[in-house]
Amino acid sequence: MSAPSGGGASRDGYGSALLRMSDDSRVVVLEADLGKSTKSCHFREAYPDRTISLGIAEQNMILVASGMASSGKIPFASTFAIFTERGFEQVRNGVARPGLVVHLCGSHGGVHTGTDGSSAQSIEDLALYRTIPGMTVMHPCDDLSAEELTVQLLNHENPSYTRTARNKTPRMYDQETSKNLRIGKGSILRNGDDVAIISCGVMVSESMKAADYLSSNGIEATVVDMHTIKPLDTGMIDELASKCKGIVTAEDHSVIGGLGAAVAEHISYSGGVPLRMVGVSDRFGESGTPQELMEIMGMTYMDIVSSCESLMS
Amino acid sequence: MIHSAGAGHPGGSLSAIDLLVALYGNKLRFDVENPDWEDRDRFVMSKGHASPAVYSVLYEFGFISEDDMMSFRKMGSVCQGHVDMKWTDGVDFSAGSLGMGLSFGLGCALAARMDSSDRDIWVMVGDGEIQEGQFWEAAMAADFHSAGRLNLIVDRNRIQNDDFVESQMEVGNVASKLSSFGWEVMEIDGHSMEEIVSALEWSSTNISAPTAIVAHTTKGKGVSFMENNPSFHGKAPNDEELEISLEELS
Questions:
Q1: How far is it, in rounded angstroms, from Cα B83 to Cα B64?
Q2: CB distance B137 to B101 below 8 Å
Q3: Residues of A with CB under 8 A from a CB of B
Q4: CA angle B218, B221, B224 (to 5 degrees)
Q5: Do the Cβ atoms of A66 and A44 come closer than 8 Å?
Q6: Which of A70, A189, A229, B195 has the largest CB neighbor count within 10 A?
Q7: Structural domain harbouring A64
Q8: Alpha-helical regions (H) of B87-192
Q9: How far apart are CA A296 and CA A302, in angstroms?
Q10: Residue B46, helix vs strand vs coil
Q11: Can you spell out the DSSP letters for A150-168?
């Protein structure tokens, strides 16, 4: 699949998805003073009666959502990824434990968030929510895939956490190809038999750039958009492990507990294949442009290239 | 129940039981044949450790059996250590972590209003519990959203896990604090059936603002050696204590 032109931030896709689901009167939207940032503001403008503003009080927002879910609503609650973490125990005890279907969206995830600095750059959210029994955890790579996957949550039977990104990244999908996405199924963007790059979020476009570079040097890479971290598409990982010489994971998240760790956990059971992880190496970020931050964190496409080459040698 | 389990929370169950009996017997709209009836009133027991009080009431009204009740805290029992909607018919909330129930109740109240339903939402919290910041987030939000069908009962028994509330972190004048948050508030003796019944009626008919009943209660009410005794917040009676308790309560 060739990368369509243009670009979009995954948070924009979340906002569009809420509007697309608005015909279902069960859909309600909850905000904690960041609707303009998470993009739930568009739903608020169109459907103020179904939008609940809860102020800067995330713990309360999560349990209000849970109470609404227990009463037949399908709540979509959002704030910054980092601030959802303040309500982690609320998600664990008040949402997932009773099995109430609340959909939580954390925008501005990762160091790609940029100049706001380390306080806003969640690098541990995927790891946190992945530990909760029954939670679906997603991190789409562009606006169109975020929109499609969020709309699919309408008929999803589990509570979920979706991380979106603040900044635009190149589109990996168009209106048609995004319809092929399915929660829980990895999406192969490019085929190659030498090495597999499994990535999520803003690192998917970097992975595609890395694959182009590798190809010009005679190494053919498969690139997977693993938009769903949990449940992980282990069948796809097994297939890649059997055909490629190694796997490289790429994520804008700590290498502890995120996509790379999820893949590592699986292949440690399934027989093993060499693995390298590109991601945040157990450190906090700082203020800077997304590009500068990706460089100091060792998360550019050339870092992915180096990891792939090390596997080939 | 607690003696049989060898663990549990007798003090806060006995402080709350008069309130629960009145609520279930006199006010709460439910259908024991259809526990998930959409338009039932909701009861959110936020102080979920007082589960023996809830289970006793659910037994009396036919939601659970005596065997269920006596299997309290045992493997596979519908009567989990803390009340849990996933396990027990007639339970509307999964408690156990304090400070969350009022938020959940607010969510129920907002959903009811969207559905144009007149179902009432009742929430019970303990006084130690309101040290949690989330409780006050919910209190502020309930006023902002004019959640008139949200009814709060504070079991003001003045004892929490480690010791008296006043020694851990005194919560002070709860009524005036809630009042300053925009709530309509009534203070009662939480063991006077007459006052309880009248307060529940006042609360359910006042739908212009969220309402709170601050019920002054005695931890361990009815058992001489448990009354006002922090040791019996979370301790099961031994054989001898059980006999004395049952005699005094009967």
A1: 13
A2: no
A3: 28, 49-50, 52, 54-55, 57, 59-60, 62-73, 75, 89-90, 93-94, 97-99
A4: 115
A5: no
A6: A229
A7: 7-170
A8: 101-114, 133-144, 165-169, 174-180
A9: 12
A10: coil
A11: HHHGGG--S-EEEE--SS-
**pLDDT tens digits, B113-161:** 999 999 999 999 999 999 999 999 999 999 999 999 999 999 999 999 9
CB B148 within 8 A of CB B182: no
* Residues A11, A157 within the same domain: yes
Looking at residue A218, its amino acid is: G
CB contact under 8 A, B134 and A63: yes
Dist CA A156 CA A291 (whole Å): 35
In a domain, A1, yes or no: no
Record: fold of B15-32+40-219: Rossmann fold (3.40.50)
**Element (H or E) spanning A240, and its range?**
helix A234-243
pLDDT confidence bin for A6, thresholds 50/70/90: low
Tell me, what's the pLDDT at A4?
Answer: 43
Backbone phi and psi for residue A104, each to the nearest 5 degrees, phi listed first? -105, 135
What pLDDT sits at residue A263? 98
* Among A120, A150, A170, residue at a domain's last position: A170
DSSP B207-230: -SS-EEEEEE--TTTT-TTTTT-G
Q: How many CB atoms lie within 10 A of CB B231?
A: 12
Residues A143 and A17 in one domain: yes
Decide if B85 touches A, using CB distance below 8 A: yes
Closest-CA residue to A105 (of A47, A21, A34): A34
Indicate whether A62 and A90 sit together in one domain. yes
Query: How many other CB atoms are there within 10 angstroms of residue B68's CB atom?
Result: 17
DSSP H stretches of helix in chain A: 10-20, 35-38, 41-46, 58-70, 81-84, 88-90, 125-130, 143-152, 203-216, 234-243, 259-270, 290-296, 301-312
Residues A164 and A40 grouped into a single domain: yes
| Cα–Cα dist A61/B29, whole Å | 27
Does B138 lie at the interface with A, CB-CB under 8 angstroms?
yes
The verdict on residue A2 lying in a domain is no
Residue B59, chain A, CB below 8 Å: the answer is no
Final residue belonging to a domain, choices A170, A192, A216: A170
- Rounded percentage of chain A residues whose pLDDT exceeds 70: 98
* Residue B190 structure tokens: 């939480």
What would the pLDDT profile of A104-129 be if each residue is shown by its tens digit? 999 999 999 999 999 999 999 999 99
Judge contact between A170 and A143, C-beta under 8 A. no
* Tokens linked to A265: 């956990």
Pair A277, A226: CB distance under 8 Å: no
Same domain, A143 and A236: no
**Spatial separation of the C-alpha atoms in residues A5 and A14, rounded to whole Å:** 20
* Whether residue A148 lies in the annotated active site: no
CB B150 within 8 A of CB B210: yes
Q: Does B43 touch chain A (CB under 8 A)?
A: no
B220, two tokens: 């361990």
